[in-house]
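Hi again,

Forgot to attach this to my earlier email, sorry! This is the prediction with zinc ion bound. I've pasted everything inline since the attachment limit keeps bouncing my files.
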Amino acid sequence: MKCEECQLEMTDKETTSCLYDVIKIDEEFYQRSRYHFSESGGRCADCGIVHGQIHHFGCDVERCPKCGLQMIGCGCVNEDNAGFFISSEIGDQESIRQPVEPVNFPQR
Ligand SMILES: [Zn+2]
Ligand SMILES: [Zn+2]
Ligand SMILES: [Zn+2]
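Structure tokens for the complex follow:
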């Protein structure tokens, strides 16, 4: 299955991360959360990225950088208020917020 944002094949071993490490929510840039579970094998069981990298959008493990809840359920993002970016392509004059600490996350 391909990531709807970066278009990489998630099951491909060569795909270690989503390409977009920044999400813009309501006109603010945020670094996307690198929170992950501790599956053996070192990769996310849901989207296949290497632990510590960026989950593909829609992964149920990704935490929202704005509120810390599960990204797919928190309600901060909808089709009209969000966009995906690569940090190196964002100008120096823009500030990029760090993600807040994850809250209410399940342990696996
Ligand atoms: Zn992706
Ligand atoms: Zn994932
Ligand atoms: Zn949120």
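Residues 3, 5-6, 8, 18-19, 56-57 surround zinc ion (ligand 1) (CB under 6 Å). Strands lie at 22-25, 28-31, 82-85, 96-97.

That should be everything now.

G.
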